[in-house]
Amino acid sequence: MTTRTERKETRRATYLDVLDAPPHRVAEVIAGTLHTHPRPAARHAWASSRLGGRLDGPFNPGAGGPGGWWIVFEPELHLGDDIVVPDLAGWRRETMPTYPDAAFFAVAPDWVCEVLSPSTRRLDQGEKRDLYAREGVRHLWFVDPDARTLEAFELRDGHWLLLATLVDDAPVSLPPFDAITFPLGALWPEVNPGAGKGV
Fold it and tell me: Both ends of the chain: CA-CA distance in Å?
């Protein structure tokens, strides 16, 4: 007697599920599964904003740095069938010569930064990290506002190589943005180096 196991087919999530998600949630689709999580909390948002601010001038228009990048907050990336929203992403102008006039980006970035929070840590360091490697994203940073750390990785032969782990107020000068240096403490609200000095 042969037994057959019945497998219930579940519907794969699509872009429509992202569009239908509640507006107060960030929605992503990875390997056909819809993931939603809350909008970033205050410390998370501060770290993301401060990091983006540090990189924007030198690498977007090239004020005090080499320029040659598009640095974008929370871009919606459509990579194959997957849809993800990193906290920050950057494209070299050679990778994406023209800034798209679209609701999402279909070109994989050269750099991604995920600001870790309790609700997203597992997904960021697991499935999304693997997805970025699959898509050939060259540089990946993890910023942890609770541990006050920054981990920088570079993709080599399809695998992530840890370049550095920085803590507290260490100087940050890491690929692909090693043309500038800034204090990691600038990302933590209680440190805020240079307060009152216009930095």
Answer: 76
CA distances from 27 to 40, 73, 169, 187 (A): 12, 15, 33, 25
CA distance 121 to 30: 15
Q: How far apart are CA 57 and CA 149, in angstroms?
A: 23
Identify the weakest region by mean pLDDT among 78-92, 126-140, 159-173, 180-194. 180-194
Phi, psi angle pair for 26, to nearest 5°: -90, 125
Question: CA angle at residue 39 from 70 to 58, to 5 degrees?
Answer: 20
Contact 78, 51 (CB under 8 A): no
Residue that is written with structure tokens 């943005």 in the block: 177
pLDDT exceeds cutoff 70 at 194: no
User: Tokens at residue 144, please?
Assistant: 């942890």
Residue 179 φ then ψ, to 5°:
-75, -15
Q: Is the peptide bond before 176 cis (omega within 30 degrees of 0)?
A: yes
Full-model pTM: 0.89
| pLDDT for position 17 | 93
* DSSP per position, 1-46: -------PPPPPP-HHHHHHS-TTEEEEEETTEEEEEEPPPHHHHH
